[in-house]
Each structure stands twice: as structure tokens, then as C-alpha cells.
Automatic annotation (TrEMBL):
Signal peptide: none annotated. GO terms for cellular component: cytoplasm. One of its GO terms (molecular function) is aldehyde dehydrogenase (NAD+) activity. It comes from the Eukaryota. This is NAD(P)-binding domain-containing protein.
Length: 151
């Protein structure tokens, strides 16, 4: 598979990109600075220097991919950026992918921030989500699920 990890230098993105590379997939990692490029190359991850908030600078790669994994975190307002990224990828997939190409898969990861910033509670991937933090809460979509899937 050809995979793009958006936010590939982050807490979730870097281990995901490394694991995919070790499993034999061709992995591209979107990173903001050239500082990590050599580390990515050592991990057999092709660095793509760009900003998730400016997809026009890197979106052309969508035509060659099988999967995009969105691992954007930090101080970014995910409720705004998430739907914007999904729309940009969906539009690019429709415009750039060859007719008859398999559908592009899009995976969104919210990260551990979804549980908030508690210094007293231990959370894991199985901890029930009771009150998502606005920083990473995905905005509601008016479209149906099938219409949100990039083609």
C-alpha cells in the first residue's frame, strides 16, 4: 500500500508511519520542517515538507495513494481543520485519481487529547469517552457517511 501520514512527526503519527514502513508499505510523511527529513529517510519514510493547513502544497500526491491517515494534533483546532482536510482530499481524489482506481481510504485519529488534560486519571485506548475536549472533537457533518468517504 501507498500511505500518507498527515502529522507524521507527532505522538501518534510517527509510530504509525514507522510501523507501516516496517510492514513493507510505501509510506509518505507530511511534516512541517526539514529538520526531521533525515530521520524519516532512515526509517524508510518519504518526507513531504508541507503544512496540513495548506493542502494545496501537497494534495497532488493523492492521485497515487491507497490510504491517508490523519494524525494532526497539538494546538491545531481539529474541529476546523479535520473537515477542511477531508474535503480537500475528497475533492482531489475525485479530480486526480484515474477512473476505475480503487477508492482512497481516509483514517482519522483524534489522539489522546480526546480524554483531556488530567494529571490524576489514567486513560487507555479502551477508556470510555465521556466528554471530548473541544480541541480535538470532530465537527458534526451534515453529509451522510458514504458521501464523506473520498473516492
Amino acid at each position: 500500500m501507498k500511505v500518507l501520514v498527515i502529522g507524521a512527526s507527532g505522538f501518534i503519527g510517527l509510530p504509525a508511519a514507522r510501523a507501516l514502513s516496517r510492514a513493507g508499505h510505501e509510506v509518505f510523511g507530511l511534516i512541517r520542517s526539514k529538520a526531521m527529513a533525515n530521520q524519516f529517510l532512515a526509517d524508510e519514510i518519504t518526507p513531504i515538507i508541507g503544512d496540513a493547513e495548506k493542502p494545496e502544497d501537497w494534495i497532488q500526491i493523492v492521485s497515487t495513494l491507497d490510504v491517508i491517515i490523519e494524525c494532526v494534533g497539538g494546538n491545531t483546532n481539529i474541529s476546523v481543520l479535520g473537515p477542511t482536510l477531508l474535503q480537500a482530499v475528497s475533492s482531489a481524489a475525485k479530480a486526480l485519481r484515474p477512473i476505475g482506481a480503487p477508492k482512497l481510504s481516509y483514517i482519522y485519529t483524534s489522539g489522546i487529547w480526546i480524554h483531556g488534560d488530567s494529571r490524576t486519571e489514567i486513560v487507555t485506548d479502551t477508556t470510555p469517552l465521556t466528554n471530548p475536549v473541544q480541541l480535538v472533537a470532530c465537527a458534526p457533518h451534515s453529509n451522510s457517511r458514504s458521501s464523506m468517504t473520498p473516492s
